[in-house]
# Entry
Amino acid sequence: MKKLLLALSLAFTLVAVAADTKVDTSKFKDGGCCQKADKKGEKCNHPCCVKAAKDSKVCEKCNPVEKAEPTKK
Ligand SMILES: [Zn+2]
Ligand SMILES: [Zn+2]
# Structure
């Protein structure tokens, strides 16, 4: 029984780790704090970004979602 629990907790840990790295880096704003950190192989250490990353999200403050506006070119 103990082995089963150990295996289960290990599985949950792996899932948690997998979810943690599931942040969509393509959502990072170009030249933004998060993208810069990501390029260095690090995670952005802004408190707002850390909080968002914990939820497997990209910080919306620093990486505002681009609205469906026609891009001027
Ligand atoms: Zn950031
Ligand atoms: Zn942020």
Q: What stands out?
A: The pocket of zinc ion (ligand 1) is lined by residues 33-34, 44, 46, 49, 59, 62 (CB under 6 Å).
